[in-house]
Amino acid sequence: MFDIRAIREDAAAFDAGIARRKLDPIAEQLIEIDKRRRDAQTVAQELQTRRNELSKIIGMKKGKGEDADAEMKEVSDSKDAQAAAEETAKAAGDELEAILCTIPNIPAEDVPEGEDEDDNIELRTWGEPKDLGFEAKEHFDLGEALGQMDFETAAKMSGARFVILSGALARMERALSGFMLDLHTTENGFTEVNPPALVRDHALYGTGQLPKFEADLFKMEEGLYLIPTAEVPLTNILAGELVDEDTLPRRYTAMTWCFRSEAGSAGKDTRGMIRQHQFTKVEMVAVTKPEDSDAEHERMIGCAEEVLKRLELPYRVVSLCLGDLGFSAKKTYDIEVWLAGQGRFREISSVSNCGDFQARRMKARYRPSEGKGTNHVHTLNGSGLAVGRTLVAIMENYQQEDGSIVVPEVLRPYMGGLEKIEA
RNA sequence: GGAGAGGUGGCCGAGUGGUUGAAGGCACCAGUCUUGAAAACUGGCAAGCGCGCGAGCGUUUCGAGGGUUCGAAUCCCUCUCUCUCCUCCA
Length: 423
Prior knowledge:
With 423 residues, the chain is of the alpha+beta class.
């Protein structure tokens, strides 16, 4: 969401900003609607001022037992005009918001040009894909051979894009969640949160999933939505709040299930665990002062990378190009992990700085220690990491020729000392 | 699912039609006092929007939206959210 006053002050900059999102100029139209709103509001306010004066006079006169018919007539005569002005102002305001809330965030200056993920810029790589010395298998072949990953039985009860993990693989998913949460809470300064997985529409509006992306969500008959990411409940902790500056930054982490209908992704990654309707993710959310969000962004991507370093999984970090940038983000780094079975890097984390875009939508503000007034906070979110995909990465990179999976060192304490997963 | 009670400022909490933007308290800021701090005392302290170059002026806001009235936090209606009890349930 954007500040209409900022658009008024520099319409060209706004249009140039959304042009990078391939959107046509719209500032002029917005300013025209806003002008209508303000003009009507001014008229309504002037009429109200007069009405307030008259009311006081009427009150005084009646108190003294005097006649106030003239004043009362003037008030009733102005009513229609005032109501009309108020109606015009409200309609224009609604119209303005309806447009503004569908415009994506303006990209940061250093977001690279580009159409799609092929144009993302690689910033760095870490680790070297191991030469296994045999032909690597994909995770679903490994998992099914182990008898611990069952798509067919899951489909029987839930349909496509679900999986049943069992035995050591199920335990490894749990181990990964625990490992990640422990890292973020004990070393990275995040507070662990166990939030609701069902949220109201306004929470999704606040983070930007609604109103444009309802098709990607699962909606309950009762009106609640299943969260597509813990970003929604974690960021909404500050919704509607006005907090003191010295309580920032806030850093939250949570392990939750995420639910996505992925309506637009039919045909992609139909096999395996890469793209599921339900998956586990450890999420990080930070809320900062505006001047701190860029540094927080770098910090957060580092927190996510640390997970992969400790798991000794090769990865690379890319900066998303304009065409690949999400709705609410002004800048996003993705981490792509090496998948030996696929022989390529695949997204395992996405870390975004949303600036004040979400904060405006959810009215999350802070009161500066010095100076007057209030400011909107900045919000950031990032996966740390997608647990299911991390499991996939471990299986493919740690696989042995006999189909067994070596358990990464750091996970062994979480798995009762288990060193290798075998059929 | 059934019954009831409520939504007031950053927080708590008074307030049933006429200087109530709203008592009081907490928090916060400034000052007095103090070697310093605490305590005590004094004063200050809402947000949004509009108009104005500006000091500033105006307007709105007591969950949301309608209504009654010259005038509504206060009365009426609808909606929404929260809480309590019963029922049910992990």
